Structures are given as structure tokens and as C-alpha cells.
Amino acid sequence: MPSCRWILVLALAALASAGPASAQLAWTRNPGNPTIPNYVSGGYALAPNVLYDEPAQTWRMWFTAKDYGGPWSLWSATSSDGEAWSVAANDPVIEGGAADFETDGAVYAGVVQERKGYTIFYTGVNGCCGSAVGFATSADGLHWSKYAGNPVLVPSATGFDAVLIGTSLAVMFDGKTYRLYYEGRNGTLSQTGLATSTDRIHWTKDPSNPVLPAGPPGSWDESEALATSIFGHGGTLYMIYTGSSKHSPPQGLGLATSSDGVTWTKFPGNPIFTSGGPGQWDWDVGHASAVLRAGLLHLWYSGNVQGGVQWSIGSATTRFAPMHAVVQRRPEIDEPSTPAALLLHPSVPNPFRTTTTISYELPERTMVTVRVHDLMGREVATLVHEEENAGRYQAEWDASRARSGVYVCTLSAGGHQEQKRLVLMK
């Protein structure tokens, strides 16, 4: 008899008071994606930073753009619904300058809205890469004045951020203290550090940096863990970050939580948002911005085609609601022989009322994704998204929060797909 090697049950009760956060959540991608395509500036459009302007009842976005062959710069756009965007007439709103750290452009905006306007933190580009962080202020979010003493945050002499800093930014402001979460690179890893300031000019790097390190070898975020957005709810801070592996592209988005903004705990069900699939504009995803509003988590993210450099911006939403225990990961079944081919077995039971077990076989080590969609093609759950050895596996789908109906389970591995129908009857 085969034996079950392990079963991991993710108890999300600890997150229930504050929200989402499982790869099981049903993200709804905007059917109009990409909402800001790569050709908006005749080049790239990526790394959105979005906030909701309450007084103006308007969504505002600042994003990185680059004309093909031209310099990097920051653009602005507005929206009434967060889905359809209009770029500003005076774009780009921030360009590179004469200062050494930004001679080749400006990228990666982190914006906070204050009583008298806005502050934007950005990375200056010198040569190929971001080198340091500067800031600018604005009364309307469109016309900006750079601080004459830029840059205000530079690489350290040694340590995790000795090579460069700033090419991924997330910023928070509580009315007194600015918290800047920034990328630090040491030549091998890209990780997230924290610096604080009360005047935007003088910064103190946290002694525990990096506050969000890359994952262990073999993990989905072993190469980079870069904070791109932070929001709070119910006394808990939530960080959206970009992660990637040396051996398992593409990138994905993960979630981490904190009670103090310094000590962060990665969600065990990461990544929470992944590739749109082969042939899609968002085969690779990263650099996202999240806003929680009226119980809905809005996500704007960067997407790139497979094998190309055509970064664009799209959006997705999911309900931000308490969750109970979810069976996320499966037992791996010991078998004496290696499967001869990729195979997805019919789920058991099927039809089912609450949970069903999905079994599959892999003939070789490969990147594996097991997803459930409804008949409209909307993703309902991601059960598996990682590299696995050859063998026989099982995944359980807890559909206690899904509606009765017909669903499609898709196994993607090694460039091939297998599908089976699932019938949920409550």
C-alpha cells in the first residue's frame, strides 16, 4: 500500500480577523487587461503605485514608463473606477536630472498623500540600474518639485544593500514618521530593507535589515523578496511583495504580515497571485500595488509576455474577508515506479459537497500548476504552484465557500495541460 508522506493543512484562523490571503482566493482579473498597455509611451509601462483620493473621489496612479530607446521616467494616470485609466496630459511627471544618481531617468514611485499635497519617493537611474532614492513634493500630484539635496537614501558601505538600493519601493506615513521599504541588493540577492524618517531628508536604516529576506534555497522567493505595497487593517499590516526563484520562472506575488512594521511573517500559502499562463500578456507578474476599500482588495500589477520585454499594467480584485481552515497542500504518494506520462485523474468524490481529492502523475521534475476555474474562465483556486519531482501526487480542494456548479480543474506541467470537470453540489 502506498503511504502518505505528508499533508499540510493551513489554518488561517490567525489571519481571520484581518483578511485574505490564500492562494485559494478567487482573484478576478479585469477583462480589459492590460489597462495600461506597454505602448502607452511607445515602450514599457510597469510598477504601478495606486491610492484612492477620498476628497476628489478619484483613483490616482503613478507608474514607471520608458520609450523604446529613451530614458526611464514616471507617469501619472487617474480613474473613476480603478479599471479604466486616463494618463495625464503633462506626462511624464518626473524625469531624470543632472544629479549623478538620476542621469538616466527616474523609476519606481512610492507616493503618500498628506494634508497639503503629496510626497513621491523615487529611484534615480544611473547606467543600467537604480542607484539611490530621492523625493519630490506636489500640491496636485501632477506637478512636482524635487528636493534640491537629493538623493536622501544611498547604498551602505557593506551589507545586504551595498550594491544598490531602491528599485522597489513601498512607503507608509502615519502623520509623523515615514516608513520606506526598499530593495537592497548585495550582488547575489534582492531583499527588502526598512528606513524611517520624520522629515524625509534624514533616514535611519533599521538594524534588523533586511526586514523581509529572500526565502531559503529551493523556495519560490529564493532570489528576491521585494516589497511593493503595504496596507493596514484591524491592527495588522499587510505587505505585497514580488518573489522569484533561480530555477522556476516566472515571478509571483506573495503576502507577509506584521504587527509592528519591522518583524514580518510570510504567509505559508504563498504565492497568492501568479502567472496568467502561457501566451498571456501577464505570463510574468510582479511589482504590484494594493488598496483595500469597502471590503474589496484591489490589485494593480505589472505583467510581461513570456520570452519578451513588453511590460504592461493590469488589475485584479478579490474579496477581503475572514477565512477558516483551508486544506492547501497535498500528500505526495510513495510509489516504486516513475509515471510514464503526465496524467490528471478524475477527482474523488465527484460530484462532491465540500471537498474533493485531485490526483495527478508527473513523469519528470517540472514546474507544476493546478488551478480550478469556473465555466466563465475565472480562477477560483490555485492548489499547486511550484516545482515538483517525478511521482504521484494528490491535492485537496476545499470548496466550502464556493457556489454549487460545474468547475474545471487544469493541471499544467512541462508545457502540457490536462483538464477534468468537477461538479459541486451543495
CATH architecture identity of the largest domain: 5 Propeller
Query: Major sheet: order of its strands?
Result: 2-21-20-19
CATH topology of the largest domain: Tachylectin-2, Chain A
- For the secondary structure, the number of strands is 30
Question: Which range does the strand content fall in?
Answer: over 45%
- Helix and strand succession? EEEEEEEEEEEEEEEEEEEEEEEEEEEEEE
The CATH homology group name of the largest domain: Glycosyl hydrolase domain, family 43
Explain this structure.
The protein is mainly beta. The chain folds into 2 domains: 17-319, Glycosyl hydrolase domain, family 43 (Tachylectin-2, Chain A, 5 Propeller); 327-424, Sandwich (Immunoglobulin-like). The chain contains no helices and 30 strands. A hairpin with a 4-residue loop joins strand 11 and strand 12 (178-185). The chain is globular and about 65 Å long. The model is unreliable at 1-24 and 322-336 (pLDDT under 50).
